Amino acid sequence: DTIMRAPAPLEGADTLILESTYGDRRHPADDAEATIGAVIRETAARGGTVLIPSFAVGRAQTVMLAIARLKQRGEIPDLPVFLDSPMATDATALYRKALAQLRVPSVIISASGMATGGRVLHHLKNIAPDPRNHVLFVGFQAGGTRGAHLVAGAREVKIHGAWFDVRAQVSQVDGYSAHADADEIMRWLRSMRRAPSQVYLCHGEPEAADTLRQRIEEQLGWATRVPEHMESVELPL
User: Fold this and answer.
1) Between the CA atoms of 182, 6, 107 and 114, what dihedral angle is there, to the nearest 10 degrees?
2) Could you tell me the pTM of the whole model?
3) Main-chain dihedrals φ then ψ at residue 31, nearest 5 degrees
4) Residues facing residue 165 across a β-bridge
5) How far is CA 157 from CA 49, 55, 125, in A?
């Protein structure tokens, strides 16, 4: 990660509760920064705006750093970049109106990252119907979210009770995920000097969690479970 330290090795644990978001796959080898650059260049060339739904803490800053680097190297035009962050209600209304009326190529970064709510929805209403624009997702899209539907190719999107056509290009960059992939998780587990007596896998789709469970059991020999929804577990003291 460009703005965070690498995870430190862990001495050991009695019980380990571990996320499994990418438990069944690896991150793509593609250069995420180069991908963002290509999207911005192509969209700006046709006079469009790039909307980047982004998690407000961590991901937004990473994306802004990538755009700054691309500008510095001259790989994208020096177009305006807006981070729609929280501010006073009146100022926010004026800011939104100004961005909606913008008629020059630009980049807008706004939360939420899965387009489930927040200010990004107001931008999506204006940007999705115009084929010159591009909606670029830079994080994992959970099943059933508005972001997941858009990435899957939805041609309409429901926002605030109304339907909007999706004529803008929609794509996703996985390289900026804050979650380790399966190989990275296994490397981190192997750094532990003392094996836990039990591993519980959470925060992952069922297939991803179960794939990682099997891998941990087969390669490390550690007892690993994926708890059922709402299951209670009493940990040993």
Assistant:
1) 40
2) 0.71
3) -80, 105
4) 156
5) 18, 20, 9
